[in-house]
Specification:
Number of helices: 9
Order of helices and strands: HHEEHEHEEEEEHEEEHEHEHH
Largest sheet: 7 strands, mixed
Pfam families: PC-Esterase, PMR5N
CATH topology: Rossmann fold
Number of domains: 1
Shape: globular
Structural class: alpha/beta
Membrane topology: Single-pass type II membrane protein
CATH architecture: 3-Layer(aba) Sandwich
Number of strands: 13
Protein name: Trichome birefringence-like N-terminal domain-containing protein
CATH superfamily: SGNH hydrolase
Radius of gyration: 21 Å
Main location: Golgi
CATH class: Alpha Beta
GO molecular function, one term: xylan O-acetyltransferase activity
Strand order of the largest sheet: 4-5-6-3-9-12-13
Strand content: 15-25%
Length: about 450
């Protein structure tokens, strides 16, 4: 059962760190995680992480500026305008089924060839982050674009921009979490942009970690909120001598949590930042730390911290939403695929998916996925048949089978201009766009539409 922890000081004992956690670190160099999971432009200042960023209005593409160049955050869509609810409920122009089919388990299946072209590419979509624009950066192979996920025992329909936009009309959907949440949000924007132009109406001015788009012809809004651990955190700043994240388990990240009232649906996605060294605070005390031998403090397995934060977050979302008709989806852990040195060619060299059963999940991936599945299921059980709905986007297994879908060296334009032996940085964590991450949003569409 999910319980509320708002305004309550809770001390808990966390299990000792397990040996396998150290094994994971041997596979994923901290130096690369620092580069990929932190901004490459500047170290964030901890003080800046607990303030609201200043609003700046910009066009999403050249010539796509909002009508009012001084427009601030747009008002949320009118509540209940042209709709009855959020999760799988009928809007104008939609047909309501007389009976719901049994739920499909999209988590088990296989990747099969698909000749259909992607709905977008590196030039047709203006919201692809530079580091994920693999085609524009010269990736020579295109086979990774032509696979679809086929679940066992049921079908996962191809993404329909029209169907998603119909659902999104007069609604506000937000992606909240780390850079993989951003990756998924930008994927959705590109998929929808194949039918309707999104206008970027808000960004925070600090590396665009908080952004908002409006599809004006549908009065539909999509936002991305940077919150890599969902709770309040003072991020590490190694240039200033701060090596660890300071994580406050009893303080919610109000940069996104305070916006819940304006959001009709929230997609949460976190995980990789829990692998980074951290000091854990609860009730005004330090209750543990991860990878902190230099601090002479008790080592704490991050699995327990992750579970506690997911539990507290969903409990607080439940409390704040109350009896509102909303949907909360949680995307499970998306594995990395480092198979070589991070700064040389061949870090993630695969050109095809693994076959079903060819690549087993690692211990860390299994535990992170299990936590989300179990805690979300408990929240859904607690919500019962009420208007608030919880769902899991269980992508861990399907993502584990796609080592070919990462940017690798093509996180940079023309990475081998200096020769194949040149030192290059590789991204084997995030996903090329278009690419496998678009499947995450195929699952999202089926989840929210019933």
């Amino acid at each position: 059962m999910v319980t509320t922890h708002h305004h309550q000081t809770t001390h808990f004992s966390l299990p000792k760190k397990q040996f396998l956690t150290y094994a994971f670190y041997a596979l994923v160099p901290l130096a690369l995680l620092h580069y990929l999971l932190f901004s490459p432009l500047a170290e964030p200042k901890p003080a800046a992480l607990v303030r609201e960023a200043a609003a700046t209005v910009v066009p999403s593409q050249p010539g796509h500026a909002p009508a009012n160049a001084h427009e601030q955050l747009p008002p949320p869509p009118p509540p209940d305008q042209g709709r009855e609810g959020v999760l799988g409920e009928t809007q104008a122009g939609e047909v309501s089924a007389t009976a719901s089919p049994p739920p499909c388990d999209y988590s088990e299946g296989e990747w099969v060839p698909d000749a259909r072209p992607p709905l977008y590419n590196g030039t047709s979509c203006g919201t692809i982050k530079d580091g994920q624009n693999c085609m524009a950066h010269g990736r020579p192979d295109t086979g990774y674009l032509h696979w679809r996920w086929r679940p066992r025992g049921c079908d996962l329909p191809a993404f329909s921009p029209d169907a998603f936009l119909r659902w999104l009309r007069n609604r506000h959907l937000a992606f909240v979490g780390d850079s993989l949440a951003r990756n998924q949000g930008e994927s959705l924007l590109c998929l929808l942009a194949s039918r309707s132009r999104p206008d970027l109406v808000y960004r925070d001015g600090e590396e665009s970690k908080f952004r908002r788009w409006v599809f004006r012809d549908h009065n539909a809004t999509v936002s991305i909120f940077w919150s890599p651990l969902l709770v309040k955190v003072a991020e590490k700043a190694e240039l200033a001598g701060v090596r660890h994240n300071n994580v406050f388990l009893d303080a919610f990240d109000e940069r996104w949590m305070s916006q819940l009232g304006a959001l009709d649906a929230v997609v949460l996605s976190v995980g990789h930042w829990f692998l980074i060294p951290g000091i854990y605070h609860d009730g005004g005390e330090v209750v543990g730390c991860h990878d902190c031998a230099d601090l002479n403090r008790t080592e704490t397995a991050f699995f327990g911290v992750f579970k506690e934060i997911v539990h507290r977050t969903l409990a607080e979302v439940t409390r704040r939403y109350g009896n509102d008709r909303k949907v909360v989806a949680f995307t499970t852990f998306s594995p990395a695929h480092f198979e070589g040195d991070w700064d040389k060619a061949g870090a993630c060299p695969k050109k095809e998916p693994y076959k079903d059963g060819e690549k087993e999940l690692g211990y860390t991936e299994m535990e992170m996925r299990k936590t989300v599945v179990e805690v979300v299921a408990a929240a859904a059980s607690s919500a019962g048949a009420g208007p608030l709905r919880f769902a899991t986007l269980d992508v861990t297994k399907l993502a584990n089978l796609r080592p070919d879908g990462h940017p690798g060296p093509y996180m940079r334009n023309d990475p081998f201009a200096g020769g194949m032996d040149a030192r290059v940085q590789n991204d084997c964590v995030h996903w090329c766009m278009p690419g496998p991450i678009d499947t995450f949003n195929e699952m999202l569409l089926q989840t929210i539409s019933g």
